[in-house]
Specification:
heterodimer, A: alpha+beta, 7-stranded mixed β-sheet, 6-stranded mixed barrel, B: mainly alpha, two-stranded antiparallel ribbon, 5 helices, 2 strands, elongated
């Protein structure tokens, strides 16, 4: 028992021991216990003395504390003492001392490598989280995603009755679930009405994935039978609209005008296919869920243990054949099974691996620079090495010494790179939102730490190998001779030549890749959309079906609404459509009047758009022939307008005007073509313009009604400024109608190429860093070589060589390396850019313009790097050169 | 033999006068703890002092953890004498009058 100390003295002792324990971190493990006990023994004793002599002696206490601080140098001393004994640690100590003596040199190397390692850490974290880390579900490899498949498409949907049959009859899935993938719902209630993404799903959907609710519960089996108004909210919606209040569970909220009971909240991070704010059960027993021809579900299944996806595909194909035999409408329909992970990741896998490769190349180039620096120093240190060899240091000892230095640099750079990588990720998460799947999950975990550590070690070996081997090869006699003169040996320079060539070649490869992506992006952004996006504002308006039960009510709303919008200052015109560019749409079957299809396979289909009369003028879609809609079309015979592409397909070489089409809107609608308009790239600039049939929204029986509309408003001046006034106009008319997704059309277009732009920017950034590193490497190599050869240059000039000849000689030496590098790099790029081919839009992977401009860029940059050393060479002083010996 | 540094000489001198504990040596020599302990470590490494732990019995009787103490070795005594001699001659050579040196 140590109860002899008063409380005060005990506190002093404890405070002192905290200092001792902190300092003890430095003490080598095997000595630490004894070391700590020595301090604790003395401190206790002294505290005891203090206490006995005069309690509460503040002065004495302070003296004791100050003395305790001496534990820090004591601990440091034990560490250095340990290093003296251990040759490994001795090398380390020597290496540290060497680096501390040249802090700028060490800092330059560590910074160069940290840049490379940091970028690699960040990129690998992304790849690790997106591609390697399992999905946030139970045993995710068992999960299979299923599309409907028929002759024309393999990514279609599945009908509810088919799903129920598949679920009933299959023996390969332990659980088979279904959900819709498109769809929205309108939430009303205390705050402003809001349209959000919504899905209906089979009751077993979440249990199939193995997703546990964050709060509350998931659907019960009986909730897909009959009519259960229950809903599960996403974490995001719960936080945003309901302030994260758990008491929302059990309460009812109006969804699509009907009260629904909230039964659960989903966890925050799911995958991007789960980006849905409201989940409701599929009411399988209702009429609209019982039609085998209506396909609108996708399936998710969990394979039974040991069943492969190929076996499951064969098994499900068998069921599909049975169903087709039973129901004629199932003719040629089946399921298309793909691993769930592929659906979540989409097509980004190859892109990410290309980027990871690119960032690896940057690190390799950085290693080249560091190796070159170390080689230069190795030459400068050849005297030191010679002395150490003469004093009996073995060759292996020298190599080990140099490698220890490299390792020390590499590990320091690794630590710095990890910190840098962390901040790079913060930036990427902020900038890249929505452009990469699973981006929210990206962070630095154990795998990444191991990766960075491995990369640091590997890096040390790569850049440390050249100087170490150089030291091992050099012969002692030559070194002794050169003592004090520090002239570079031939072999050192040639190793550095190789490094420069490799750096130039690697940066050519990266620059070509970046150049291709940049050109591809330009091409993409230059694509004509078919309408004029400047000054256009888009917004979505949806009328709650419970309130707007008939067409008259809907029409009345739109009329009043348009009137109010036109009155907003700055608004030129306003129109609505069901098919807004980059915001989805639907299609249907049709045939030319008098030529009905003989079989289902002969059916033609085209995209459908119901538009108001001002639509084409507001969007500035050019009229190719005929006329646009006008108020006379509100009554009278059925009319329609077709897009140029559709007109040319249906009536090649003839006018489409006056022809009639029969269109399937549930019941047939016969429309006469009164106009032909220009093609519009509805699905983004990277996709061809679809064939479109336009219908006048006010004409009865044309289209699917006007309860939901995409608003297009053309304004003078700032498009964003009218947003609040649009909102006010809706609210004044009917506070239950949500107005959502207000955005200028130019920014919609800009966002649509965000993902390619993001990856282009990344690769351009990597290539830029590579170019800078390569040029710096070339410059450093030449500058060093000129310094080494200043005597030679001086003698040449003393013998009558003109400065221009010397200048040219240095330029030739440098440019020879650059040219060899460019040639090798171009050859390499021909192979490497094939990996990019799938990402390119309207640019070939061997685009001569890109290859040419990269070669020229590098030649110019290389020349620039040569000029300064070459000019310095001409300044070599012949007299000084002759005096040197 | 290389002479001991001045601080090593002071510490070794203290130990030779049976001032055996680290903190007591600080009191005797006026050197800070950050000097005394590394010096003791070096002296022990070179075999001039050896360290021991005081008996558990004593410590337990006083209800405190045991302290570590240092003793001079034979070679330590030799080194002390030689170094003291070295500094004495050095002082004489520099014209510094000899004072009473720490007696053995």
């Amino acid at each position: 028992m140590r109860d002899d100390l008063s409380r005060d003295a005990r506190a002093v002792y404890d405070r002192c021991m905290r200092i001792v324990r902190a300092a003890g971190v430095l003490v080598p493990d095997r000595r630490r216990d004894e070391w700590t006990r020595e301090w604790s023994g003395e401190l206790w004793y002294r505290a005891l003395l203090l206490d006995r002599a005069r309690p509460n002696d503040r002065h004495g206490e302070r003296r004791l504390m100050i003395r305790t601080v001496g534990a820090i140098p004591h601990a440091a001393w034990t560490l250095t003492d340990e290093m003296r004994i251990d040759p490994m640690l001795q090398d380390l100590k020597y290496a540290m001392r060497g680096l501390v003596k040249r802090p700028a040199f060490a800092a330059l190397i560590v910074a160069t490598l940290a840049l490379g390692i940091g970028a690699n850490t960040a990129m690998f974290s992304i790849v690790n989280s997106v591609l390697f880390r399992p999905l946030p579900y139970e045993r995710p490899t068992e999960l299979v995603y299923m599309y409907g498949a028929f002759r024309q498409g393999s990514q279609a949907m599945v009908s509810p009755p088919d799903y129920l049959d598949y679920r009933e009859r299959n023996s390969v899935f332990s659980s088979l679930a279904a959900r819709t993938v498109f769809g929205t719902a309108v939430i009303t209630g205390s705050t402003e009405p809001e349209r959000v993404a919504s899905s209906i799903a089979s009751a077993n959907f979440f249990t199939t994935l193995g997703v546990k609710p964050y709060r509350g519960r998931v659907f019960l089996p009986e909730e897909e039978q009959g009519d259960h108004a229950v809903a599960i909210l996403s974490y995001g919606l719960w936080q945003r609209r309901y302030g994260g209040d758990v008491r929302i569970i059990g309460k009812t909220i109006p969804i699509d005008g009907r009260p629904h009971t909230v039964i659960g909240i989903m966890p925050p991070v799911l995958d991007r296919t789960m980006d849905v704010q409201i989940w409701r059960p599929i009411p399988f027993r209702t009429n609209e869920m019982s039609v085998r021809r209506f396909h609108f579900l996708r399936l998710v299944g969990r394979l039974k243990p040991g069943v492969t996806i190929a076996q499951a595909q064969r098994h499900m194909d068998g069921i599909a054949r049975d169903l087709a035999a039973q129901y004629p409408e199932n003719e040629s329909w089946r399921l298309n099974l793909v691993p769930y992970r592929d659906v979540v990741i989409g097509g980004v896998g190859p892109v990410l691996l290309v980027l990871l490769g690119a960032v690896g190349v940057v690190l390799l180039i950085a290693c080249g620079n560091v190796a070159s620096l170390l080689l230069a120093r190795a030459s400068a240190r050849s005297g030191e090495m010679a002395v150490r060899t003469a004093l009996g240091a073995g060759r292996s000892r020298l190599v080990r010494q140099l490698l220890t230095e490299s390792l020390l640099l590499g590990v320091a750079a690794g630590v710095a790179g990890l910190v840098l990588g962390h901040y790079l990720l913060v930036v990427v998460r902020a900038v890249g939102d929505g452009m990469l799947p699973r981006l929210a999950e990206v962070d630095i975990d154990g795998t990444v730490l191991a990766f960075t550590f491995g990369v640091s070690l590997l890096t040390s070996l790569v850049f440390g190998a050249a100087p170490a081997l150089h030291a091992a090869r050099t012969d002692l006699a030559a070194m002794m001779k050169s003592l004090g003169k520090s002239s570079a040996t031939r072999s050192g320079v040639s190793t550095r030549d190789v490094l420069v060539v490799a750096q130039v070649a690697l940066s050519v490869v990266l620059l070509v890749g970046a150049g291709l992506l940049v050109r591809s992006l330009w091409r993409l952004q230059d694509v004509k959309t078919g309408f004029d996006p400047s000054g256009l504002v888009a917004a979505s308006v949806s009328l709650p079906p419970t309130k707007y039960t008939n067409r008259d009510a809907e029409v009345r709303f739109w009329d009043q609404f348009f009137e109010r919008v036109r009155a907003i200052p700055g608004v030129e015109s306003v129109a609505a459509t069901t098919l807004f560019p980059l915001r989805g749409g639907g299609d249907t079957y049709f045939y030319i009047d008098g030529r009905p299809p003989a079989t289902d396979a002969d059916k033609m289909n085209a995209t459908v758009s119901s538009v108001t009369e001002d639509y084409f003028t507001t969007m500035r879609i050019p009229l190719v022939a005929g006329r646009v809609f006008n108020t006379s079309d509100r009554t009278g015979a059925g009319v329609m307008i077709v897009s140029d592409a559709l007109a040319r397909r249906l009536f090649p070489g003839a006018s489409a005007l006056g022809k009639r089409l029969v269109v399937d809107f549930g019941k047939p609608f016969v429309g006469e073509i009164v106009g032909v308009v220009g093609d519009v790239r509805i699905y983004g600039q990277a996709n061809d313009a679809p064939e479109v049939m336009y219908f006048a929204s006010r004409q009865p029986n044309a289209g699917w009604g006007v309860g939901f509309g995409n608003l297009a408003t053309r304004v003078r001046g700032d498009p964003e400024a009218v947003a609040s006034q649009l909102r006010a106009a809706v609210r004044a008319l009917d506070p239950d109608v949500p107005l959502s997704a207000i955005q200028s059309v130019e920014s919609i277009l800009y966002d649509s190429v965000a993902a390619p732009r993001f990856r282009t920017q990344l690769l351009v950034g990597f290539a830029g860093v590579a170019l800078i590193l390569a040029v710096v490497g070339l410059y450093g190599m030449l500058a060093y070589s000129v310094t080494q050869r200043s005597r030679e240059m001086g003698i040449r000039m003393a013998l009558g060589a003109r400065p221009t000849a010397v200048f040219r000689m240095v330029i030739r030496q440098g440019m020879a390396l650059v040219v060899v590098g460019i040639v090798l790099g171009v050859a390499g790029a021909f192979g490497a850019t094939r990996l990019l081919a799938a990402q390119l839009f309207a640019v070939k992977a061997t685009d001569p313009i890109v290859f040419g401009s990269v070669a020229i860029t590098l030649a110019v940059a290389g020349l620039a790097a040569c000029i300064v050393p070459a000019r310095r060479a001409t300044k070599a002083d012949p007299i000084a050169a002759l005096r040197m010996d | 033999m290389k002479p001991l540094s001045i601080s090593a000489l002071a510490v070794l001198g203290a130990v030779s006068r049976a001032i055996r504990y680290g903190f007591d040596i600080m009191d005797a020599t006026g050197l800070p703890s950050g000097t005394v302990y590394p010096v003791l470590g070096r002296l022990e490494r070179d075999g001039y002092v050896r360290s021991k732990w005081e008996s558990q019995v004593v410590a337990q009787r006083e209800k405190r953890p045991p302290r570590r103490y240092y003793e001079i070795t034979a070679s330590g005594a030799r080194a002390l004498a030689e170094s003291a001699e070295h500094y004495r001659t050095l002082g004489a050579r520099l014209g510094i009058p000899a004072r009473r040196t720490p007696a053995k």
